[in-house]
Each structure stands twice: as C-alpha cells, then as structure tokens.
UniProtKB/TrEMBL annotation:
CDD domains per the UniProt record, alphabetical: G1P_TT_long
Classification via InterPro entries: G1P_thy_trans_l (IPR005908), NTP_transferase_dom (IPR005835), Nucleotide-diphossugar_trans (IPR029044)
Domain Nucleotidyl transferase positions: 2-235
Record Pfam families: NTP_transferase
Name of the protein described by the UniProt record: Glucose-1-phosphate thymidylyltransferase
Keywords of the record: Transferase
Originating organism: Actinoplanes italicus
Top-rank lineage group of the source organism: Bacteria
Length: 333
C-alpha cells in the first residue's frame, strides 16, 4: 500500500501563525503535525509516500527530507494552487499506479494511529473506505449516511442541512477504482475537485464504499484553539524525564520532559510540559500545558497553556491560560 499526504493547503484560519509556517508544520507535542502523520503511515507498513505541496513546498521538503528518518521514501508533488483533494489524486496518478493507497490530510491529528482503519480495509477491501466520527455539528465537514452496517449510502460535502451526524475524517483508503471517479467529477461549490464527490460517484455506480468509525483521538487542526487542544491532549501522555539541567533554585512539578541541553535557572515548571533541546528558562514560571520549542529563551516570564515555537524569545511576558471554545466546533475558511 502506498500513501498520499496532502499538504498543499494554506491554512488561512490559522493566521497569523501560517504567515510564518504552513499549518501542516505547526508543532504538536514539540513536533510538526506531519511528523505524526508519517509515523502513523510507517506503523501500518507503508513505505512509499507522495506528499502534495503548494506554496510552502520548500519548508515542507526541508522538514521531512527524503523520508529516511521515518523509514519512508518520500516523493514531492507540486500543486500550482489549491484545486481540491480529488485534484491531488489526479496529480498523483503516475506515482500511485494501480496500487491501493491511503490518503491522509496533512492537517488532521490522529495520535492513536490508523492501525484499526488499515486492518478494516485489509479485511474487507471495499472499493473505498472512509473514516467517520459522530460530531454535534457536522456542517463544516463531509457528511456520510450509512445503512447501519457501515456501507455508505450517501456522502455530501459540508451540507447546510446534514442528514446525519457522521463527519468524514481526513483518512481515506482507496483501491484503483477511485481514479476513474476522480476523472469524471467537476468542481464543486468552492470551485475545487472534491474527493467527497468522487467517492459519491463510486457509491452511485454501485461500488462498495464503507465507513469505519474511528475510535481514537481526532482533531482537524484549523484554528489556534485546535493547536492548543491537540497539544494539551498530547501532553497528557508525557512522561517525566529531566535530561537537561535544573539548578538548585529551580523546581519541576508533575510530568515535565526536559530535553538534553535545556536549562532551568531560578524557575518553576509545572507539568505537563515539554521543554525542547537547548531551551533556557530563566527566572520564570512555566506551565501547566506548555510546549517550549528548541533553542527558546524564556526570561522573567509567566506562561500557561501555550506553545512557543522553535527559537522563540520572551522577556517580561505574562500570559495566563484562556478557556478554549467547545470541542468539535469548526469555522470554515
Ligand atoms: C476536507 C474534506 C471534508 C472532511 C475534512 C476533514 O475538508 O473535504 O470532507 O470532512 O477535510 O478534515 P477541508 O479541510 O478541505 O475543508
């Protein structure tokens, strides 16, 4: 099985963060979102991955390289502008050939992996398999209607009046049947070739399309609140490990992961927290729910519930945690 990872989107909802980096490289638990995706792919046995990139192609290729560090071989495919998820499949046809493939959206965070979904697909091998999750308000997602046994009856992209509550997640398993469907669809309401329409075409043609309910943690990282929420979730798994230096006037409380080369000077860090390699925390109070990137300098500062990007410098800043809006809510671009 091959993989297609879509990382061409611009991430307008994540501005101002996405003025400096693509949303697929936003750090979650101290690592770019795409690193988590690559690990998920390696775990299910994928070795060949094509990553569709747009304006941020250089930054993404810099971060992932040739894939060796993940045990993968990565090919980059350049999309001139966002033309839709189905357009990415068209673009990747020469790479995919007639192989089965898994398509992952680069802005979806699935820290529990995609092993169950891959097993489901391998066992039943329908023409296509989508992953779904019941959400309170599915209007900002693709919405699937099933017959109750997991067979998809209808798929609609962002319906104003959804017929059910099953939102489509960003992990799709396809056989080569999808290629013909992708060639036949026309741009949808937002002017893009929607993968939802291609999958619906398979349903209409009588092919078996199944929906697998995803049981693990899932977030579509579209807004800053999603980034914070994902980090908070990932931080719940952090194991206390002090590999850096803690001076006598500093203390750590709870699950604090201090990377090698990180220093705490007259500071207090309350876990869960990750302090990246080479970071210096001086005369500060940090945590809980904080991820400090590598080589950051945090001085005379109080921080809670936040992410500091690699190389960030802060002096004399007080930032207290803000409450997050309800889970599962999504505004559109
Ligand atoms: C895309 C799909 C949508 C799916 C969502 C999941 O939407 O078109 O069907 O529910 O990803 O993240 P987009 O992020 O392009 O708005």
């Amino acid at each position: 099985m091959k993989a297609l990872v879509l990382a061409g989107g611009s991430g307008t909802r994540l501005r101002p963060l996405t003025y400096v980096m693509p949303k697929q490289l936003v750090p979650v638990a101290g690592e770019p979102l795409l690193f988590h995706t690559m690990r998920n792919l390696h775990q299910i046995g994928v070795r060949d991955v094509a990553v569709v990139v747009g304006d941020w192609h250089a930054e993404i290729a810099d971060a992932l390289g040739d894939g060796r560090r993940f045990g993968l071989r990565i090919t980059y495919l350049r999309q001139d502008r966002p033309r839709g998820l189905a357009h990415c499949v068209l673009l990747a046809r020469p790479f995919l050939g007639a192989d089965d493939f898994v398509m992952c959206l680069g802005d979806n965070f699935l820290p529990d992996g995609i092993g169950d979904l891959a097993a489901d697909f391998a066992q039943r091998r329908p023409a296509a398999q989508i992953a779904v999750r019941a959400v309170d308000d599915p209007r900002a997602f693709g919405v699937a209607e099933t017959d109750g046994s997991g067979v998809v009856r209808r798929l609609v992209e962002k319906p104003a009046e959804p017929a059910g509550n099953l939102a489509v997640l960003g992990v799709y398993f396809f056989t080569e049947a999808i290629h013909e469907a992708v060639e036949r669809i026309r741009p949808g309401a937002r002017g893009e070739l929607e993968i939802t329409d291609a999958v619906q075409l398979l349903v209409t043609a009588g092919a078996t399309v199944r929906a697998s309910e995803y049981a693990g943690y899932w977030a579509d990282v579209g807004r800053i609140e999603d980034v914070l929420r994902c980090n908070r979730h990932a931080l719940d798994q952090v194991k206390p490990e002090l590999l850096g230096e803690v001076d006598d006037a500093s203390e750590t409380v709870g699950a604090v992961a201090l990377a090698p080369g990180a220093r705490l000077v007259r500071s207090r860090v309350e876990g869960p927290a990750i302090i990246g390699p080479g970071a210096a925390i001086v005369d500060s109070k940090v945590g809980p729910n904080v991820v400090i990137g590598s080589e950051c300098t945090i001085q005379a500062t109080r921080l809670g519930d936040c992410v500091v990007l690699d190389g960030g410098r802060m002096t004399g800043l007080i930032s207290d945690p803000q409450p997050l809006p309800p889970e599962g809510e999504r505004r559109d671009d």
